[in-house]
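Ticket #4471: structure output looks truncated?

Reporter: J.K.
Steps to reproduce: submitted the chain below (132 residues) through the standard prediction queue, then opened the result file.
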Amino acid sequence: MSDFETARQLLTMAGQDLHVMTILAAAEHTPEEAFGFHTQQAVEKAFKAWLALLGREPPRIHNLRTLVLLLEECGVETTALWDFTELTPFAVQFRYESLGGMDVGLDCVDWLKRVRDLVNRVEALRVELNNG
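Returned output as attached by the reporter:
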C-alpha cells in the first residue's frame, strides 16, 4: 500500500534541496561539495518517495545505486536513473573529505534540470496514485 504522507514529506524536502541547488547554481563560485551534496540529497529523497509510493518502506541509506536497484525490484524502468548514482559520494564522503582542489566537473545547470525533472516525475506519480 502506498505511503502518500511519507512521499509528500520526502518530496517537500527534495524541493528544499532543489531551492538550495538553484541558489548555488546561480552563484559565481559554487563549491562542488555543497552543490553535489544538495543534488545527491534531492535525488535520494525523490527515490525514497518513489519507493514509498510503491508500497516499499524507504531504507535509511544514502547509496543511490541501492535505491535504484530497489526501484528496479518494484518494476520501475531504471535505465534513465543510473546516471544519478554517480552522486553517491557527495552524501558522505565529500561532506567530510574535501575534494582537495579536484574538479569533479558538475554541470550545475544540467544537474539542476535533471533533478527537477526527477522530482516532478515522482510528484506527478504521487498525485496520480492519490487521485486514482
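Triage note (M.O.): checked the attachment and the full C-alpha cell line is present. The helical segments are 4-26, 32-53, 64-73, 93-96, 108-131.
Status: closed, working as intended.
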